[in-house]
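During the second half of the funding period, the structural biology subgroup turned its attention to how the target accommodates small molecules. The most pressing case was magnesium ion, which had performed well in the primary screen but for which no bound structure existed. We therefore specified the complex as follows and requested a full 3D prediction, including the ligand pose.
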Amino acid sequence: MMTPLIEIRNLSKIRPEGRGYELRIPCLELCPGDFFALLGPSGSGKSTALDILALILRPDACEEFTLHLGGIDFSAKDAWMKGNIDSMADIRARYFGYVLQVGGLLPFLDVRGNILLSRRALGLEGDGPLEELAESLNISHLLSKRVDQISVGERQRTAIARALAHNPSLVLADEPTSALDPLTAADVMNLLVSTTRRQGAALIISSHDWDMVRAGGFGELHIDVRQSKPGEPILATLTPHTGPKVGEQK
Ligand code: ADP
Ligand code: MG
């Protein structure tokens, strides 16, 4: 059996602001090379879940939260309990790539400099897969342009190249195409999927666009939201649904 990249059991995260919100992840296993769409309406906790997976946001409770990366077993549960922030930052920088909705690029660097950030931060020599990534993402001609000189779609392609330039094991993409027009969005989505596949990394893309994700044929993680009464706290539960399920809620 393949060792999972990430194992989570009975994790919970409370956000007390406003009317209150709790995310629960009863059981989640993510294996090397897995492709998942993380689906849920706006406010259901997609960004919260991705930030927890990325070791950015501290869970309030969990029975197990273990990563198996680069031959190491790493207990994120213990790291959070001991406040071992540096070890988590190291893991994140080395093994994760994160593509945000928009932004995250540094305006004072050119496209090449932005793409190489993840490698430079790790002290990796050379440009790694930069040329190949730039070519497959169709941004080779933009490498020496500043970020404010390129379009939003080109910025998202640059963000994808940056997330992949250090050959991560897991790529997290938080609604990476929601700021783009539909044609550009489809293009960027296809490129994200094909470049990540080529590198052999696992991928989780969050989206509220069920149709778009279904067309990609990924496994699905659903966040279902319950609220007993208006004004009561929201309880959101993340569960895996493998394979597309036709005719479900949109
Ligand atoms: P989604 O990404 O699916 O739109 P979020 O993860 O952003 O959902 O939000 C889930 C819940 O967490 C919401 O109730 C939201 O108000 C709350 N929330 C999001 N960001 C923060 C934050 N920085 N501080 C406190 N609560 C937050
Ligand atoms: Mg979000």
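Two results from this model are relevant to the next phase. The chain has one domain: 6-248. The longest helix spans residues 182-199.
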